[in-house]
Amino acid sequence: MWIKIKRLIHRKMRKINTLFEKTRFKINGINYGDKLYIDGKVIINNENEICIGDSVVINSSPRANLAGGGRTSIQVGKKGRLIIGNCVGMSNCIITAMTEVMIEDYVLIGAGVKIYDTDFHPLQAKYRYGKEKSNDYVKMQPVKIKKGAFIGADSTILKGSVIGENSVVGAASVVAGIIPDNEIWAGNPARFIKKI
């Protein structure tokens, strides 16, 4: 009996939370489709464009997914775009788009995944500190995650990466390149494991 009551309360709280987060999304200039579901509070820093498709699930709390204890955090720079397709699911992940991050339909993104289209800082030491310090030398390249891909928990997807259609990235992998369609890759750096 108590378990049923607890589940009912939890469902009601999730509906209220989703309504609250949708309001915050609108205030932050985020366009989203029908049936967006959000569990927890999403950390948002949007300076340009975020578009989210239909039937997207965003888990953003330890309660929502015990496998990844943080929150979902989305950062889009002044020239950046984040496009999330339909029927995408993500849990407690971090996405930074300074150019473009494109996530196509039916993608699953595991807990603790990080997707970065930028190095954040220049690679040359003379531009990172001192009198020549400048962020003009930060390297950026778009990231694309194609339809039906699955990114395992705690993986990192770096700038310029493309994850192929229906491909799988094993947990805790680091991707810095192109993964063809219908393949499993894993490791640091991620390497080909087998065809699907």
Alpha-carbon Rg, integer: 18 Å
Beta strand %: 25-35%
Query: What kind of oligomer do you see?
Result: single chain
State the separation between the terminal residues, measured CA to CA. 44 Å
Overall average residue pLDDT = 93
Offer a few descriptive terms.
single chain, alpha/beta, 7-stranded parallel sheet, 34% strand, globular
Written description of the protein model:
- The mean pLDDT is 93.
- With 196 residues, the chain is an alpha/beta fold.
- The protein has helices at residues 2-27, 125-128, and strands at residues 30-32, 37-40, 43-46, 49-52, 57-60, 73-76, 81-84, 89-91, 94-97, 100-103, 108-109, 114-116, 143-145, 150-151, 156-157, 162-163, 168-169, 174-175, 178-179, 183-186, 191-195.
- The chain is built from 2 helices and 21 strands.
Quick structural overview:
This protein is of the alpha/beta class.
What are the SSEs and their pairings?
Blueprint: H1 2-27, E1 30-32, E2 37-40, E3 43-46, E4 49-52, E5 57-60, E6 73-76, E7 81-84, E8 89-91, E9 94-97, E10 100-103, E11 108-109, E12 114-116, H2 125-128, E13 143-145, E14 150-151, E15 156-157, E16 162-163, E17 168-169, E18 174-175, E19 178-179, E20 183-186, E21 191-195
Parallel strand pairs: 1-4, 2-5, 3-6, 4-7, 5-8, 6-9, 7-10, 8-11, 9-12, 10-13, 11-14, 12-15, 13-16, 14-17, 15-18, 16-19, 17-20
Antiparallel strand pairs: 20-21
